[in-house]
Design brief:
Length: 421
């Protein structure tokens, strides 16, 4: 038979009995869907729209020369370990270097925590779901909260309770009322998840008083706290605030750290610092996922911390991002019409904008894109998707002049929407 004929026959056969791929997916897989906003934003990345939508660090901040030097050294001296499988808990010299670094920077005694390395904090979020969440368990998150955390936890079918935010972070007083109410109903919160410092998406930081109160509540109402701290080091103004983990004497805080925003996200190296008992369980859960975290990346991260490059590099990232943060806040001040509110982050990567009620930022996005600017509509950051008039703006990825121009275009878009109200 001719090749062409063969192919035609095969095609006919296939179309006669099309495979119903859907029937193969698990119930869980059927539930997960790509968000339409993400799809729209994907298109934006390739056009000349100024995108304030991203969540990426600026590649200019990647310490390429340092990484090059370290990589050569690692391959010359430690290739046997760097290219081999590692233990699930992580490369021990890195775990030790991180423990020392956290003790020095955050005043968290080495003796109080065990550290496990993970494939980015994202993996830790999934492990937390696996290890702690049974269907129906009550998990508290901030409103708004980190989108990828919602996605990671949701897979394990918790019941979410969301607590409002203000400029000082999570409204811990409202959390307390909620805890009391649940207690009366005989229910219990298992985990409170917080991005405590320069929150994604709002950019705000939980005050010290609230941190201390949250720890007290954890003890009083018997829950664990997951503190996600990817931005803690990126402070451009104001006074440093110790992590909640610093105030944790009982071992209730699971702290998540990552190299993604202070070295480079491509290595996929992060860490969990928590009570050894909790780490042990997470370690067992991780075994079946990936055996171990990227060993080569871990050895590079080890030298990066151990030789002091991290401490040297952080001020450089700050110097690079601060003018961008300033540019965004100045541009908002200059261009935004009255009645629009936004956060004034002292660090991190994002500003959160609140428009008057009645404006749906998801519907407004298309118009903004046609004017040459993109943002992330805030709705997806709320577990109950019940807030429509907010948006997240990123200031780390595009340069200052573009930020100004982007905010100007956005302000024009908003102004037109206001007229319609
Ligand atoms: C960027 C970010 C992370 C980092 O995730 P990795 O998997 O370590 O890259 C974690 N949490 C939040 C809130 C973030 O914004």
């Amino acid at each position: 038979m001719e090749m062409k004929e063969k192919l035609q026959k095969l095609e006919k056969k296939l179309s006669a009995q099309p495979i119903n791929f859907e029937s193969f997916f698990s119930k869980k897989a059927m539930e997960i869907k790509a968000s339409e906003v993400r799809e729209l934003l994907k298109l934006v990345e390739t056009s000349d729209v100024i995108s304030l939508a991203g969540g990426l660090p600026a590649p200019e901040t990647f310490p390429v020369e340092t990484i090059k030097k370290i990589a050569v050294e690692i391959l010359e001296k430690h290739a046997d370990k760097a290219l081999q499988y590692g233990t699930t808990k992580g490369f021990t010299p890195l775990r030790l270097a991180l423990a020392r670094w956290m003790e020095k920077r955050y005043g968290i005694p080495i003796s109080k925590v065990e550290i496990m390395t993970v494939a980015g904090s994202q993996q830790a979020l999934d492990l937390i779901g696996r290890v702690f969440i049974d269907p129906g368990d009550i998990i508290v998150v901030e409103a708004p909260t980190y989108l990828a955390a919602i996605q990671a936890f949701k897979y394990y079918d918790p019941q979410f309770i969301s607590i409002p935010m203000d400029d000082d972070g999570m409204r811990v007083d409202i959390l307390e009322e909620k805890l009391e109410e649940l207690r009366r109903q005989g229910k219990r919160v298992k985990i409170v998840y917080t991005v405590s410092t320069f929150q994604n998406p709002m950019g705000v930081t939980m005050s010290v008083e609230r941190r201390k109160r949250l720890i007290e509540l954890a003890s009083e109402y018997d829950f664990l706290i997951v503190e996600d701290g990817p931005y803690s080091e990126l402070r451009y103004s104001g006074k440093p605030v110790p992590p909640i983990k610093h105030f944790d004497h009982e071992g209730r805080v699971i702290y998540l750290g990552t190299f993604s925003k202070i070295l480079a996200p491509g290595f996929r190296v992060g860490w969990v610092a928590a009570h050894p008992h909790l780490i042990r369980k997470m370690e067992i859960a991780k075994q079946s996922i990936d055996l171990c975290t990227n060993t080569f990346g871990q050895t590079i991260a080890w030298k990066y911390v151990e030789e002091g490059h991290l401490d040297e590099h952080i001020p450089k990232i700050i110097e690079f991002y601060k003018p961008r943060r300033d540019a965004m806040l100045e541009a908002l001040e200059e261009y935004m019409p009255d009645g629009i509110r936004w956060t004034k982050p002292e660090g991190g990567m994002f500003v959160w904008v609140t428009l008057p009620e009645g404006i749906d930022t998801k519907l407004m996005l298309e118009k903004a894109v046609s004017k040459g600017v993109a943002y992330v509509p805030g709705e997806a950051f709320f577990v109950h998707r019940d807030v429509k008039n907010t948006m997240r703006l990123n200031f780390t990825y595009v340069p200052e002049d573009k930020i100004r121009e982007g905010v100007k275009r956005l302000a024009e878009t908003v102004e037109e929407e206001l007229k319609k109200l």
